[in-house]
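[Automated response] Your request has been received and processed.

Submitted sequence:
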Amino acid sequence: MSEKLIELIPDVFYIPNSTNVGLIAVKDNGSPLLYLIDSGPSELEGEYVLDVLNEYYGDYKLRAIISTHGHPDHTGGHKFIKDSTGCEIWISKKERAFVENQNLHGSVLWGAYPPKELRTLFFNPESVDADRIIDEKDIIALEDGRKLSFINFEGHSPQSIGIIIENPDGQKVLFSGDAIFPRKELGQHWISLITNPLLFMSSLDKLEELEDIKYFVPGHGDIISDDLAENIEMNKIAVLSTKQCILNALKKNQKKTTEELVKYVADYHGLCMKIPQYALITSTVKSYLSELQNERQIQMIIEDNILYYCLK
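Generated structure:
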């Protein structure tokens, strides 16, 4: 329809922005019924989304915002949009706490009460109550007979969920959230936030096994279609290379603290971190360290009350 609202298949759209927002339109006898997928990182983006809907639909009813996961860059507009339209908020069970208690994000990243740099609106938007819990087993019939189905994509967050919409002609679109990062996004953010690298890799395998999906709409960046396999491979390389980077830092019988390993990884990738990025990178590095320990490639030792990592 325009650069603001891009139609993928009939009545299935996305609004490109710093976070891609999906839109499913249901034609009804009265006002169009709309469903959003995510809302963007703040009230400002939520306001922009409503401006786009008002521009192209005028008189409509927003039925629900369906959340791929609870991170603030995907849920920051939830409260504003819900207050403005009366829509419902749908989200998976394990992600619910994050939208209802947005202050959890900074605490999880920091491991304790976070500093002011992690209490900004980007990390701590307004909390909002969830109205419906969605599960991978659910199949939701829309008012026009089309159906929504779901797939769990753990790894980036505890229970990220992908939303699949299928039209009567068999065309399918998957809104995948941050289960996969497009190649250009990886070029800018090679070390993406991951809470469990093993599950993240498993989610990439799930994506690879899906059939007959015409478009994959990631949470950020360009739409993925014919180049899905290439993008999956790039994401897997990013995970494996980060693991190897950590192992390289521990060669020659060296032992290092978490701080030293975070510095090694950041220096290797040419990062100049400020506190928010430091929190994101540190949280991600810790998740890799836990996996490497589970795989018995490294071990943790405590000497003089300092925690060190070393090769097994």
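Summary generated for your ticket: The longest strand covers residues 21-26. The two ends are 57 Å apart (CA to CA).
If you did not submit this request, please reply to this message.
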